[in-house]
Amino acid sequence: MAETNKPSCNHKVIQAAPTTPSDDEVVSALRVVRLQRPKLGRAKVLSQLKDANKWILSDARLKKLMTLHGLACPTNQGEEEETPIVYPKDAMAAQERFKRSSTRCLRLYSREKYDYAVEPNCSVKIKFNASLTMIAHNIIVRMGRPTSSKEKQLVAQSGPMLTLWELYCAGAQKAGISKADIGRQLEAEYGVNPIPYLGPPPSEAEVKKRAAAFKKATMAFLKKAHKHEDGKALIPVDEKGRPVWIPEVYGEYAVVVFKIDKGKGLKEFGYAGESPLHARAGK
Q: Rounded to the nearest 5°, which phi and psi values hold at 102?
């Protein structure tokens, strides 16, 4: 009787080799983890990301990305905890009082010697940006302070909140304030920290497209503004009378940051960082 061929029981299971993720992939996955388990420590976050995605990911890289994108763990064993920033009991009312009393657009709180005041780095844009900030603020206030997770997601992902987030972060970068602290300040003021709800960072092509669209709109605005006497004194033009584009001055989130006192915030102590570049006609 012929012997039948029996299937071998020694098949090798081929597993996919671990891969090294991009920064965007890590940050996107981190935001999901933070949304689902906001108090999970970094060691467990690292283990979860590596196991779930078959990633090659070091603790040092994870810590760097967490800090850079405001996704650091609330507490980390073996690490010193930063002294928490103490916000006013009614942080939103305090921000509104500052805007009424100061010539600056908004106030950022810090754990250092000074707090910081932020305004656009262009006189012809200050009124526009202040109005834009107030419109965003008013829309969020009308939405109501969120209480449920669904309401928090709705507010956090709204256009007005993203406008405030980007403006606050632009000032924070110059003031040396972390994105994590900006998230906590917005939560104190509006009831939600937008960080866990942010989408993936825009691609390089998307950033360039947005910058080009903003430049086009701003140049049209500057051209109209230059027809007025105030504009002629503030807006430099080339030999053909066209406004000169200066990214450090006219860019979407080109801001000036001032050191202010911890009290009412009306006493200033100079610029945060290097003196900013200003535009002046004839310069």
A: -105, 160
